[in-house]
Fold these 2 entries.
Entry 1:
Amino acid sequence: MPKTLVLKLEGVFKSFARVETDDVTNAVADVNLSMRNGEFISLVGTSGCGKSTILRMIAGLISPTAGRLTINGVPIEGPGPERGFVFQKPALFPWLTVEKNISFGLRMSGHTAENGERLARIIHLVGLEDFKNDYPGQLSGGMAQRAALARSLINQPDILLLDEPLGALDAFTRMNIQDELLSIWQKKKQLMIMVTHDVDEAVYMGTRVLVMEAHPGRIRTELPIEMEYPRNRSSALFVEYRNRILEMLHYGTKER
Amino acid sequence: MTETNRGERFLTMTKSQLLELEREEKTSAQKRWDVAVSLLPVLCCAAALLEYGCVPNKYPNASPQRYAALLILAGGIWLLLWVWAIMRYRRGDKVRFRTLRHHAPFYAVLFLLLAAFDYLTLKTGRLLYPFIPWLNDIINAAAADWKSLLVSTLFSLRLLFLGYFSGAASGLVTGIACGYSSRVRYWVHPLIKVLGPIPPVTWVPLVMLLAASLFGGSVFIIALGTWFSVSVAAMTGIASVDRAYYDAARTLGASERQIVLHVAIPHAVPNILQGMTQGMSSACISLMIAEMLGVEAGLGWYITWAKSWAMYNRMFAAIIVICMVFNAVTKGLDLIKKRVLRYQSEVVQ
């Protein structure tokens, strides 16, 4: 069993200075959350509600204006390889081959002993054996995102942060990668936190769905999804969950 | 063969087979025309030889066989290439012949121009000798003085590369530092901005006065122009790195130093190579001017020296050598660029 890991956000605020005026944008206001390994958290909400901001704070790419983010009680300071991040754009380095992109994290941390074996396993996991010597410019959107996923997984992160990783993909590729992500998570039981626009995806994948509202960005509801995997997208329960979330999102915009 | 079996072969085609398939089939008249055109350079070479050998000379022409040998060599090379291309064509590789056919009209006209030039100089003197010598005269001059030409070439190359590489190296350092660190940029960028637009040769008089040696001074002037191009290019390249790459690298555990080495610099490589190409042309200009003004060696010096003794044929010989050397250097840089940037050319269109 993997060791327990608890990620806590306590009274987290994040405001951005605006470029033109003297105002600030309150992207995230008073967010309190507790998440642990083995959970798959789906973050949904209208655009501009601060979903990505929360993810970037957990990654350590930006720091909160106020509040505390801790992992097992230790405050988060800056990014680290134990928190993987998959961006909406794959952001693969165009000058490196797929294989070199995927092994980037290993080379940065100076692991050399187990490199070859772990690398081959991860490349196999995402099905890119035939493309490992290609450059990212030659890959389709789905393959590029698989490579980006593999690049984060190579560091064996305890937390995997997914910022709409499937948003730009076609429906079939998206469903395939959803299942791949679920099987990776079921094997390793990391803490996965995924931002998405797609309510279907949120319900299909998450153990818990956090619905956010905008201006300022707050957590409106936490909704545990009590369904067995693999989930049936057309079952009555699934549809009910989806409708409830859609209603909440609609209500959230009307109130503004 | 059944219908499906015939279809199967399309699945295992190579790229060249596909291109061949998609190309329109040529008629036999077109093919005959292509063969004729591809042999035109040989024909024009023969015409140039005839003109050179049969039309009476206006001036005495020493060692006439040299230019003739050069023409025969050039025509012979074309003929050999042609035979080789035809053999490849018979074996199904049509690309070589097509390339040859593509270049044939150009080389044919080139041979005709050589003949016309010979006619206007050696045969009729329409272009005034000795200011414009005929080609055999230039070859004779080069042959008579090949030792000094070679030494001058080596000297020029030494100066060029010393200046170019020290300029490129220091340009890389300033460019990368300015691109990545805003504190360095604060202090160094104004310097680049002010010094940059001044052509490096402006400093020649001052450098001649101050530098401990003319050679060192020339290295400095050549380096200056290269330094400017490379540092500006590297700076732009690094400043334009998409933030997403930095974010990705940081979440993958890269340290600040590793981000510079593994993200910022590789990202700037296309810009840097562009700057190095620009720097090379600026370095070549500076080299010539430095050699013509002060340094008493090198091809630039050779040209002014030959001119001052009214040995125009030697001057032209040196100009031809310069042309060849600079072309070779640029071509070399181009090859490096293609190799390093191959990831860009392999992008799916």
Entry 2:
Amino acid sequence: MLEIKNLKRYFGGVKAVDDCSFKIEKGKITALIGPNGSGKTTVFNLISGILKEDSGKTLFDGIEITHMTVEETSNLGISRLFQQPRLFGNLSVRENLIMAIDEDNTRFWKNLIGYKLDREKGDKINEIAKLTSITAFMDKQAKNLSFGQKRLAEIARALVKPHKFLMLDEPVAGVTPPLRKEISELLLKLKKQGETILLIEHDMNFTLNVSDKVVVLDSGKVIAQGSPKQIKTNPKVLEAYLGD
Amino acid sequence: MIEAYLIHILILIAIYAIVAIALQLCLGFSGLLNLGHIAFFGIGAYTSALLLLLGVPFIFCFLVAGLMAMVFGFILAIPTHKLKGDYLALATMGFSFVVYAVLLNWTELTRGPLGIPGIPKPNLFGFSFSDNFSFLILAVVIALGSYFIINRIVKSGFGKVLEGIRDDELATRVLGKNSFKMKSIALGVSAFFAGIAGSLYASYITFIDPSSFTIMQLIPVLLIVIVGGLASLPGTIIATFVLMALPEALRFVGFPSSIVGPMRQILYAVILLLILIYKPKGFFGRVEME
């Protein structure tokens, strides 16, 4: 589904991503882990086109997306969640979701004349709202939500956006343990439905529970990859996380 | 006498209402602090005036005024699309100075500081809007039409994407919305309405000169948008009435006429300060200024 080849990105002297290569398989949950500053979010930003790579290639479904803009990669079917909440604060949660699912809302004349959102899309929004348990605050302004509610609403928005591949940057950072459990169950449900997910997470228990494959980054390099079991006992990983 | 005066004020209110809701589309809904807005008003006024004096029918001059301003709106969008907030404000303000300098110095075309006198009153399908009452009806109809169209834009999905860009541009792009295209259209449409308002203004006053289109003239419009409240069209209309009518009261206080002008500026400045301190959302605003 997604393949990264020898990706490099330096910020001045800092090698944020240094010759990084890995593959993501369809229908699996892949986790990207590593200590703080190991380049995980930079990899995300390189894939989604927010940052430009110094060298290397990114292929999505066989199409090279290396030099595409943020909008182009998104419209190929990549949906992502940011580390910080980035909802549209002055819109309601429902409006946030409608904006994500509606692909005609950038067409000026069509909007001026007026059209109705397909019923299927409306149903899809309701279905995902139920799945992510945000139905109770669908009509609240997004900026008035609590942190956990924002997180769920954002996951919902990433889900309703038409996509083939989902990237989640720390979906459970800063949320309460019960919600963390809820989100991990949600991810497993999504996998059952055939979603392909790339995940960044610091919480090892959470990550090892939900993922099929783990890629470990340290100082911008891939130091290990494999099943959660292999990663748990890999000496290199233990060293990167715990020191000697 | 008092009736004629009232009609005059109402005509100005209708014209300013168009300029203000056009700026609201940019500033309140799309988050673009466009201080070049008055330049579009000027481009529209000059385009329409020059064409009218060549004998071109009003309806044509009126539309070309809007389209010409829109073209400049699109042009302005290209170099400024990566700028935000204060930087965008400075760049667009620079644009308004450039337009002012061109109007002032391209004397073969614009007669420079002498201005253009004797602009004909509108004539539509054989009906002449030469008396002020019929002009008022024309101006109100055009203002209502502009309100209807802009209201439709902001209530549609398109308007929600513009609001998304205002709240978080990167998040909008990550959802696959081309923010450059969206912002260009917002700026272009806003410029179009400022342009047609300029056309009405030129034909109403029948005289224009570059000094009518400087940043000083933008301040009342900006004030209307801020007092009415960001992202509220009804608020903008109410604020237009209040802020256009309020300074008129100064005429009746008995100040000498040389003081009325500066008093007006002082009044605007005081209102702006009070609003920013006590009511930063404006009276009907949904969005806080940043």
